[in-house]
Amino acid sequence: MTREAAAAGRIWSVSEHLDDILAHIRPLEPRELRLLDAQGCVLAEDVTVPVALPPFDNSSMDGYAVRTADVQGASEEYPAVLTVIGDLAAGSGELPTVGPGEAARIMTGAPLPPGAEAVVPVEWTDGGTGRGPATTMRAHSSAPEGAGGEVRVHRAAEAGQHIRLRGSDVQAGDLALEAGTVLGPPQIGLLAAIGRSTVRARPRPRVVVMSTGSELVQPGEELTPGSIYDSNSFALTAAARDAGAIAYRVGAVADDAETLRTTLEDQLTRADLVVTSGGVSVGAYDVVKETLSEFGGRADEGSSAAEGRVEFRKIAMQPGKPQGFGRIGPDRTPLLALPGNPVSSYVSFELFVRPAIRALMGLEPRERRVVRARLEIGEPLTSPAGKRQFLRGRNEPPAQGEAVGRVTPVGGAGSHLVAALARADALIVIPEDTTAVEPGVELDVVLLG
């Protein structure tokens, strides 16, 4: 028996197929990325703080910068009356010195002037109006005289009150972010706050998605007899983006080997990973299998099929038994060939493509949370012997006092039921050695989203 025949006859487990995929994928090389381009990426360097944050003492309130001795014992009945020597807004450069009996009107974020020891909020004062407690400040543009005159302070203040001290967030030389950190909005904000405009990170992988089949018509076009709309390329492209990739959707490719080969060669220039759907079974028009089995040259005898061509396999799972994996083209770009039925395609993405994308990003591949839940059904279910079955379901978290939640199947086991898939938020896992499942049994549930 030839090596190819032996490989074709072997039945792979879900775990074996995934492990083989991950064994041939390496994280993308880090690059210097602009901050917003780095969102969702994995940091590839330790980032230290070049300057203290905040870089200077500043006010955390709109109010008046004062010396504590000048407002000691102040009350509404006996307010401290201070001379206002100017306005301080965020970004102010030259700062007046606050001397005895003086105050400077100050806005949130403005630097604390020399001599001042605290900030009293405007609500503790008359706002310079000579009347009762103020609720707001008059805009400088409409009332510039507010920067002068007198202000009555109705409450005492302690040293440091309502002041953000220099370095109270982070000090110069502190570790801001560790290598391996996933850069979300807060991390991007911190990098900007310490003055970084770029950062070294692993880029988001570029994933090319294409469907195959001469029967496929693009949404918005008119259906002809025997044709269906191409939904897989849209679902898989959206799924790739959801996983963190930059995804490119290619229009459906007809069942023609040369067209598929040419399209793949063109797309490899912008791909870190290629995902196809359809044409991986044993039919006479399964051109993906026909084309990719030899794409990029044959592997050396004894080497992994993934090193020279795409190997097509039978996986002990339902839906999604036929799968293909290999590395093609001059850069040995990973390619995952998924079955064409919509449910099979999406389940295969969750099990194999999502982990591959995360591995390219340098993340832990297995992301989806798995919980235990009781199966809510009216009558027993059957499952094929020797196959791990993935049913679509709606998961309900445990109620108060319960150890596990409940999960209800959505639709049937058919791999064409797109509407049922759209209502599901979980995959119900029935193990390979289970052929019958009774109502109320506890099973693993893979949470989607």
Quick structural overview:
The protein contains eight helices and 29 strands. The chain has 449 residues and is an alpha/beta fold.
Search tags:
seven-stranded mixed sheet; 29 strands; about 450 residues; elongated; alpha/beta; five-stranded mixed sheet; single chain
Could you characterize the architecture of this molecule?
The protein is of the alpha/beta class and 449 residues long. It is 18% helix and 29% strand. It has eight helices and 29 strands. It has helices spanning 3-9, 14-23, 185-193, 232-242, 257-267, 287-292, 342-361, 418-423; strands at 11-12, 31-34, 42-43, 47-48, 58-59, 63-66, 80-88, 102-106, 118-121, 150-153, 163-164, 175-177, 198-202, 206-212, 216-217, 228-229, 246-253, 273-277, 310-315, 317-318, 322-328, 333-338, 370-375, 381-382, 388-396, 405-409, 426-430, 436-437, 442-447. The protein has a seven-stranded mixed β-sheet, with helices on both faces. A five-stranded mixed β-sheet has the order 9-6-8-7-10, with no helix packed on it. Strands 23-26-25-27-29 form a five-stranded mixed barrel. Strand 21 (322-328) and strand 22 form a beta hairpin. Mean pLDDT is 89; it is low at 297-306.
